């Protein structure tokens, strides 16, 4: 019987993408700290997976154990499926920041922005929420937005990003985005609730980049 072909998705490694040969996949992940990869039985599954979040397919055992051990209290409950989740990632080595938003029910990525030079994670979280609000307004949707950043949520309420980051030529585009975001908040109203993603009870934010 012929050996069944496997398709390997590498989300985080020396090179990312879909590989049809294990040796080629192994070369991307072996010795690579915190590599992210998984095998699939069909090319269709693999091509879909590479466009989505690693955590939709693979959950760390310790996070799964916590999710089983901790039952959300009544005042927290379970996340609303008809919603979007947003998150940011900040590279401590380079200072690069990026953010994205996903539709909770399907895991579909709605938007991805970055990387941006010399930014912060809080700025990314703030921009992600505003981007989500603008996206939902454009689509005439009143569904909620989840963020795991209390800081970013408080900035949204104040309509101001209270960052201490210094302006430099490298991060000037980020400050221009912040100004546009604050202007948008000042001149628009929205019905969407901004809700805290309860990682302790629900596991990782679905929009997480999987780089922890």
Automatic annotation (TrEMBL):
InterPro entries (alphabetical): Ribosomal_bL9/RNase_H1_N (IPR009027), RNase_H1_N (IPR011320), RNase_H1_N_sf (IPR037056), RNase_H_bac (IPR017290), RNaseH-like_sf (IPR012337), RNaseH_domain (IPR002156), RNaseH_sf (IPR036397)
Single GO cellular component term: cytoplasm
EC supergroup of this enzyme: hydrolase
Cofactor details (free text): Binds 2 metal ions per subunit. Manganese or magnesium.
Enzyme Commission number, as recorded: 3.1.26.4
Molecular function terms from GO: metal ion binding; nucleic acid binding; RNA-DNA hybrid ribonuclease activity
Keyword Cytoplasm (UniProt): yes
Cofactor: Mn(2+); Mg(2+)
Cellular compartments annotated: Cytoplasm
Ranges of residues in domain RNase H type-1: 85-176
The protein's role, per its UniProt record: Endonuclease that specifically degrades the RNA of RNA-DNA hybrids.
The protein, known as: Ribonuclease H
């Amino acid at each position: 019987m012929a050996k069944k072909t496997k398709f390997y998705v590498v989300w985080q490694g020396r090179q990312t993408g879909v590989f049809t040969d294990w040796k080629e996949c192994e070369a991307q992940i072996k010795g690579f700290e915190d590599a992210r990869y998984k095998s699939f039985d069909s090319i269709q599954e693999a091509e879909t997976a590479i466009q989505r979040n690693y955590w939709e397919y693979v959950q760390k055992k310790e996070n799964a154990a916590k999710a089983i051990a901790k039952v959300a209290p009544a005042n927290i409950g379970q996340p609303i499926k008809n919603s979007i989740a947003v998150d940011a990632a900040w590279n401590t080595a380079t200072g690069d920041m990026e953010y994205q938003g996903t539709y909770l029910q399907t895991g579909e990525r709605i938007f991805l922005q970055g990387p941006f030079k010399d930014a912060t994670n809080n700025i990314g979280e703030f921009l992600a929420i505003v981007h989500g609000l603008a996206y939902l307004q454009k689509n005439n949707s009143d569904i909620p937005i989840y963020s795991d950043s209390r800081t970013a949520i408080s900035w949204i309420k104040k309509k101001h990003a209270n960052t201490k980051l210094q302006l430099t030529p490298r991060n000037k585009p980020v400050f221009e985005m912040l100004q546009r975001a604050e202007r948008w908040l000042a001149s628009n109203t929205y019905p969407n609730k901004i809700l805290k993603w309860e990682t302790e009870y629900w596991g990782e934010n679905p929009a997480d980049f999987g780089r922890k």
